[in-house]
Write a structure and sequence with these properties.
mainly beta, 4-stranded antiparallel β-sheet, ribonucleoprotein, 11% helix, Large ribosomal subunit protein eL42
């Protein structure tokens, strides 16, 4: 699916329709000192590899792509809920 790099949509901070720059959401770096990670490592101690079996095949063939819209006037960021797509392409719209 081709998505334009700039979309005109509603900004709740400006309370009007403004141009938003579109980008793909990218997850942050995992923290090794986070509580969940420490718990996971503590439970894994004593096992040769992982304590739960690894999944052999996946049920889903696509990943959910999440769009991040940033208002060009006030820099307010909106995160659009993910949609299942095999391929997402950001394209420049020629006027």
């Amino acid at each position: 699916m081709k998505v334009p790099k700039v979309i005109k949509t509603y900004c709740p901070k400006c309370k009007t329709h403004t141009e938003h720059s579109v980008s793909l959401y990218k997850g942050g770096k995992r923290r090794s000192l986070a509580e969940g990670q420490r718990r996971y490592e503590r439970k894994n101690v004593g096992y040769g590899s992982k304590r739960k079996p690894e999944q052999k095949r996946f049920a889903k063939t696509t990943k959910k792509q999440t769009l991040v819209l940033k208002c060009q006037k006030c820099s307010y960021t909106i995160v659009k809920e993910g949609m299942r797509l095999k391929k997402l392409e950001l394209v420049e719209v020629v006027k």
